[in-house]
Amino acid sequence: MSVVRWADGVPEIDAAVAARAMKFSVEYFLRQMQRGAIRGRVERGTGDDEGRHRMSFRHRDRELVMVVDDDGRIISQELIMAAPKPHWRQP
Known about the structure:
Elements: E1 4-7, E2 10-13, H1 15-21, H2 26-35, E3 39-44, E4 52-59, E5 62-69, E6 74-81
Antiparallel strand pairs: 1-2, 3-4, 4-5, 5-6
Helix pairs in contact: 1-2
């Protein structure tokens, strides 16, 4: 099943797919994207990875990494959770 469409070389992913993979509701995911709190990055594979694209979405303590093929099918995905960074306050 294709979850990513390519429009003029730019990937478009269904927000429900990315939100579900990040363990967010679609509404929360879209709101955070609009605020700029979720950042995305796309990398095109070269050499042995030709025809693959790595899409990453980062929000606070989590990063979703998806590898998709040229047809927009997910090859792999991983949700990486990091320990939250403490915010120190000065007395």
